[in-house]
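Long-time lurker, first post. I've been practising inverse folding by hand and with some scripts of my own, and I keep getting stuck on stretches where the structure tokens seem ambiguous. Below is the full token string for one chain I'm working on. Before anyone asks, I'm not after the true native sequence, just a reasonable design that respects the backbone. If someone could post their per-position residues I'd love to compare against what I wrote down in my notebook.
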């Protein structure tokens, strides 16, 4: 099938969407979903669902994915930190993945682009906008 959607015009936006998709994939794991449900119930939070981009509907799905991480950022951080604080409940690969997701989610460049995407619905299509997003402290 031919790809119909728009692609990010800058490398920073592409990196941002790759990271958001990575976070969403992690939260699709059965054990993580079960732990998230427990976490939300214990803390009296609404169960949150993270979205990913869909290749043929890139612009709409990218915004929806970005918004789901933006609106649940605090809860995601708290949940990941709680999982790190209970290492016996997860295997080493999962703990390593949690650490790398925390690094991404707490990166100032990631947070800035996430906020920009929330408040600027056209930032992906603007070919004059180029933001360099890398994991630098």
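-- Answer (accepted) --
I ran through it position by position. Result:
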């Amino acid at each position: 099938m031919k790809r119909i959607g728009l692609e990010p015009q800058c490398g920073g936006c592409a990196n941002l969407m790759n990271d958001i998709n990575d976070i969403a994939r992690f939260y699709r794991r059965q054990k993580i979903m079960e732990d998230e449900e427990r976490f939300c119930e214990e803390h009296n939070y609404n169960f949150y669902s993270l979205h990913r981009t869909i290749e043929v509907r890139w612009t709409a799905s990218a915004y929806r994915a970005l918004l789901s991480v933006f609106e649940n950022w605090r809860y995601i951080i708290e949940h990941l930190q709680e999982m790190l604080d209970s290492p016996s409940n997860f295997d080493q690969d999962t703990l390593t993945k949690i650490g790398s997701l925390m690094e991404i989610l707490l990166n100032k460049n990631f947070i800035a682009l996430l906020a920009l995407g929330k408040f600027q619905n056209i930032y992906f299509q603007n070919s004059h906008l180029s933001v360099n997003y890398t994991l630098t402290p």
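A couple of notes from the structure itself: Helices lie at 11-26, 30-42, 58-85, 92-105, 108-119. The two ends are 40 Å apart (CA to CA). Happy to go over any region you disagree with.
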